[in-house]
Amino acid sequence: MPIISDLTAKEDWIEPDEIPRPIVVFGAMMDEVGDIELDLHQHRKGQIILVQRGALSCEVEGGLWVVPPRSAIWIPGGALHAIKASGALEGYNAFIDPQMGADLPRTCCAVSVTPLLRELLARAAHLPYLYDEAGPNSRLVSVLLDEIAAAQVEDLHLPMPSDPRLRRIVDEMMAAPAARGSLTAWAKHAGMSERTLMRLIDRETGMSFGRWRQQLCVVLAVKWLAAGASIQSVAADLGYESTPSFVTMFRKALGASPGRYMAERHPGRA
């Protein structure tokens, strides 16, 4: 398989659904991809995207996921999804026939990546398109499936509402997360009662207003930190009055400070 370094080089891409093999893996290594947006699309095969360097976000049927370095996202076959990325991007993209594994996740999820899973994907990315399915290759595929099925789910998911009134509020909050208006202010802005807004948010996202907004901050913080932003600038851009208060929120949500969380996802950093 070629390692893709230029997304404009169409000759490097073959539709994975058309390749008659149970697993198809592509590698990607791009120092500067600019701003990439892949509109809603779907594949028959399930898809796991592992990010080694950079970060991408993926919206899948009512949810937004952010994938930082050394993490991955699993997208079941047939799921409509859109992908955004910017800056440098390096990683692997594997497409898996749905008949290959009953233990694979049924829904979209962000997952952590073990060293073994990373190495298996790297090895599979160097197989030819029509690799021999017998012998060592069959064992490689089998172990790769087991590692994907056993991957630990990460809480980098932001439920996205479908109600048009609520989606307008969400879009405004994502565009200006530092504008930390109250529930009352957002309800008035949307022309509905506070009780109606609370009911809508709970019904559409399964979260309270405060919990959803905190998760929005977590998702955006991971995305910006992965792109190289400082902890101080992220705290300010999210509207926190102080960096320590942002760090406390981040640690409670993900179990580690922003600095340690990102250091664990960048080779060579302490």
Automatic annotation (TrEMBL):
GO terms for molecular function: DNA-binding transcription factor activity; sequence-specific DNA binding. The keyword Nucleus does not apply. Residues 164-264 form the HTH araC/xylS-type domain. Keywords: DNA-binding, Repressor, Transcription, Transcription regulation. This is AraC family transcriptional regulator.
